[in-house]
Amino acid sequence: MASKRATLADVARLAGTSPTTASLILNGKPDTRFSADAHRRVHDAVAQLGYRPNMGARALRTDRSLTIGFISDVVATTRFASGLIRGALEEAEKAGHVMLVLETGGDPARQDEAVGAVLDRQVDGIVFATMRARELVMPSLPESTRVVMLNATSPQFGLSVLPDEESGGRSAVDLLAAAGHTEGIALIGQNDEVEDDLFRSATVARRVHGLRSEVKALGLSLLTEESCWEWEPENGYRLTAELLDRRPDVTSLLCMNDRLAFGAYQACQERGLTVGRDISIVSFDNDELAAYLRPGLTTIGLPHEAMGHQAVQLLLSEAAPGERLIEMPVVERSSISVGDTESSTALLARERLDARRKHARDTIPTP
Amino acid sequence: MASKRATLADVARLAGTSPTTASLILNGKPDTRFSADAHRRVHDAVAQLGYRPNMGARALRTDRSLTIGFISDVVATTRFASGLIRGALEEAEKAGHVMLVLETGGDPARQDEAVGAVLDRQVDGIVFATMRARELVMPSLPESTRVVMLNATSPQFGLSVLPDEESGGRSAVDLLAAAGHTEGIALIGQNDEVEDDLFRSATVARRVHGLRSEVKALGLSLLTEESCWEWEPENGYRLTAELLDRRPDVTSLLCMNDRLAFGAYQACQERGLTVGRDISIVSFDNDELAAYLRPGLTTIGLPHEAMGHQAVQLLLSEAAPGERLIEMPVVERSSISVGDTESSTALLARERLDARRKHARDTIPTP
DNA sequence: TCAATATGGTAAAAGCATTTACCTACATTG
DNA sequence: CAATGTAGGTAAATGCTTTTACCATATTGA
Predict the structure, then answer these.
(1) Using a CB-CB distance cutoff of 8 angstroms, which residues of chain A are in contact with residue B2?
(2) I need a surface site. Which of A74, A233, B137, B141 has the fewest CB within 10 A?
(3) Within 13 Å, how many C-alpha atoms sit on residue B15's CB side?
């Protein structure tokens, strides 16, 4: 029966009106323009035929397609990226939009192709997401195209959404201090060297800067900083093992990411130290891994989903250029032992932590 | 300068031809239809203006949008699903298509909306992907809409792409047997009970069936089957710990997934058993986790990426209905100790394993 | 020389929704 | 009575591409 899709002309015919009238009734804001009867007839016809407008035809006329382009370098290769997509997808759906997802692998040629492909489909805007490069050089676009950079910045497009790494760094320190760990804190995995990996150097710099300034703000100091290049379990293991053997006075580990922490767990266990009791660990990313570890790893999460939401929201609003920083959630599990939580430093740390959380709640409107 | 997008009319004007001619030259197969000079002029104009056809307008006329819809219940929630997307994305790009990705969370209302939304955009076909339900009830679609089910089946749509779970089960057993483990093999995590989770019961049944029949085919038998409901590390740990204490003669563990194996590792380590030397473990899924473990976990991977490729390929071809089973890759790491690899059983197992691999290579054309 | 057939092209319709400019019939106002 | 409004509605243009049907002109064959 539904052999052919109904068109507006069909609706008009069935309702006994002109297509103009039908269109005006279906799209016009001032409902008073036509008689109540005409309204009824048109809506009945729509329901009866199951009419839905053809978006291609509409876009042709209105230049709005209710479609947005999401172009990323890698979505699936990196285990986190899907959070960005999911957030964006949800927000798009909420706004009645649909999302064209393309991947470029970071290759400029494919990137150009991707931009062309979405432009050919008259998207209402483009989100450029990345997990690798920080500064993205983009093909030039028509003036009117709305663009937001997601987890990236670009010299050409001013609007970007990033995790608030500095604030995250601060939170990690506060977490330790609030639990009473005011000395014997080691930083594992930081790396101050100039890197050619722009992405990492930018995020690392902010994260480390946050850590260090919070340490200072609380009047503390780090016992040691153990640096390494690859943030993989091996290095976490090695660094921690060496450190533990060298400095028996270490009480807490700040790991730059969860994989390093994973290695650190192993080193601790081997030495008979129970994490969350004899030694405290806090790290970054909230990798899937973090939930599997025993005891659960307390970590400062990357707010990918919230970032995705925010990006699409900004894309569809008339937002002004600028960097939008999204608070990194602290996810507390059981890798921090509790000591003297009543010291003035602990109190101060908790206060600062809470203030930051509150600020985040007030700032990002995304649920 | 490029203030407005060039249209075909612009091209025609610049080339000094009619739009008809320009269109025919750009799309027509028989290149001889027009003069060489006309060809040149049109192509020059295209290059000069950077003309690209407006897909909406084209789709209006031709009913082909070079766009496909990818509708899934959950892409990001499950850590694997992104492989499906990536595979599909790559294949789509290869075919000059672009992909609209929507997520429904499994909610029928959202599912209907999603179908409507992609149909409104005149997609050339729809891939329904799922990580949860196995049998999917879909809204009714126009006859002509091409559909393929990805990691799912449906009473309404005949074409589906699934992992070859049975073959994967066989491979796991062969892997152990080929390394000389012909007795003392325990199965961890299987569950024969009737489940209301259709998805799991279908895949588990095939996987287990494969395991058991391969055991039989090699003339072996399982030492024990330890069943549990949730395939989480806790259970892997508990089941293995109990088993180890009860049966000192266990030499190998077949875990139903990598998370169970993760728990099993811990239990073994606690008892002073070195995985890959004192005890062998093989499991399923090739979770991210599997690479982090020390020693690396040998596992039978879910071929999500290949499945995504295949799905889109089938969607865009005139493929006949049926179930397409994609071979599960065996990814060998170091969790299996090597024993007597020269026994006739070991030889037989290796032979069967190789035959299956070869078959897979010949069968799935996807790189 | 007439008819047939290439050769190289074009006008116009179709596909669908939106929107501008206009129209009719009636009522009101001065 | 003429002028003005207003309520309720429509014809036709527009956005862009593809495609059908048709047109000249020149060449060839008989």
Answers:
(1) 142
(2) B137
(3) 32
